[in-house]
Design goal:
nine-stranded mixed sheet, 9 strands, globular
Amino acid sequence: MQANYKSYDFEKSRERMDEILDSSDNNYEDKEEIPSRDNLTFTNGYYICCSAIFIDMRGSKDFAQKHTRPVTAKIYRSYISELIAVLNSNTRLREIYIEGDCVWGVFNSPKKGDIDTIFSTSAQAASVIDTLNVKLRKKKYSEIKVGIACHDADVLMIKAGYSGSGINEVTWIGKLVGETADLCSKANRWNSKRTLYSKKFYDNLTDDKKKSIDWLNWNSTYECYEGETINRTMNEWVQGNG
């Protein structure tokens, strides 16, 4: 969110607090799908069960120190732009965020088939990293290492910001974001695979999808499923050009 200076008015500040705190609890509705962000005001919200994918770099501080700033900028731009392209290609994606070197998205997933597509998107994201690493190796740049996590949980969707300033953002409160971020922090570290799937996410996959991914392992330490998931078509290019 870009800043736009406005002098602080303490009286107006108290009025805004009262407007928010005095609003009706009935303004917070249960929804099966993520509603349009245009339906949000500063006094309402929606409870939804939806899904998230988080992709976060590993060792980013050390990585940035290995290259000149222009090279680091080009690598990060390539990394972020193509992860956004992959997430944005899923029709169930509703919101996408960039936080430092973490890219994450929130998806509508009321049906099991929706979870299947999100699983496939996570595989594409992993293959994007593999593809970028092929190109980085050819330029003799350091390769990128990431952790990926997929989760399905309840969340409260609200509009947060400064009313009247134009500074606002959709904010997600509840289990979904925090638990997915925590799971992502454990991915591709110590004894875990690159992509981790929460038990709830896995359980909500269709039976056909579960049969096709019987190579996933159960990680008893983190109580989730894990795997070196990839997109087969994209991997053919990686293998042929690596």
